[in-house]
Design goal:
With about 375 residues, this protein is an alpha+beta fold. It contains 12 helices and 12 strands. The longest helix has about 45 residues. Helix 4 packs across helix 8.
Amino acid sequence: MYKSLLRCISLILTCLLLSTFSIHGFSKITDEADIKKNTQTEKSKSSKPYKEPKFGNTKSTSADDKAKKNIKSPKNPREVRTTVMPRSRTIEPVSPRVSMGTALGLSRRADQLNLKSNASIVVDDQNQSVIFDKNSQIVLPIASITKLLTAMTVLDAKLPLDEALEINDEDVGIYHHSRLTKGTILSRREALLLALMSSENRAAYTLGRNYPGGITAFMAALNRKAKEIGMKNSSFADPTGLTSKNVATAEDLAVMIQAAYQYPLIRQFSTTPSHVKEINRREQTFLNSNRLVRSGDMEILIQKTGYISEAGRCLVMMANVNNKSYTMVFLDSVGSQSRFADAVRVRDWLENAQDYPSLRELKSVNPVLN
């Protein structure tokens, strides 16, 4: 019996020793595995760059990170352009081009007739009395008013009016917008008509180019003509008026139109309402550039219009009012119709005026007619 009890106790002790040994070995193995794992973790941490710790709401940060991860970026991101302008260009405000008279401040000077033209003069042709004057002594660009002098210079040379002239590359180059295309044939007479009536620039330039000695000789003769008729403050660089170098005073132009009036052909051509010419097998209708001529609102004896941006809208003319002839000059007018409105305003003033004072006498020299 005692032996059986001893065996039981011995068996129990043996089991206890075995269990203790197995637990100790297992924990040792586990500890070694943990140490190895921790060592590998430390090595991997040391190989990564250091990041500063973030403070604040860690939950929102992790939420943001998740949201960023969920956003798919396009494979080929492209910038959306909202304009077709080149990237290097910047849009700058474009200032409107003003005429020389406006730049000089002439528009701020009022007059008794409230004209829109910055310079003007009205002359009673019967006694050469200046009865209206507004900045008439100031030198300004005159644009196509030049063509009156161009016509006088051509006619003074007594060149054959029926001679055929051809529009060539030089004529085309001087003015790009014209119905007189390269190769158009017209007589000198027809070129004069189109230059004076519809202010055709190619027609005017070909008249100068076909002058004896060419365009240089023509411009020398034109400037001499201006001096001969008494234009004291004038200068001209081309026969069309497209350059702002063609300048004169309103008083000089009053002298010029009185001289041009002595040429019957200039009177006729400048007051012709329209002309039809066949160009490239098509009929082209050219209209007078002066709407007062086309409408017949005034009895106009001779006239010429002109426009470039530096000169503004210009008009010179002689007209009968109450059976009397008056010379009228309007320079640097603002608005396409204002120069014609100024002419009507002067006509109404002359029709209703009982008397008007003579400011001075217009001094002119009669033109030299050969």
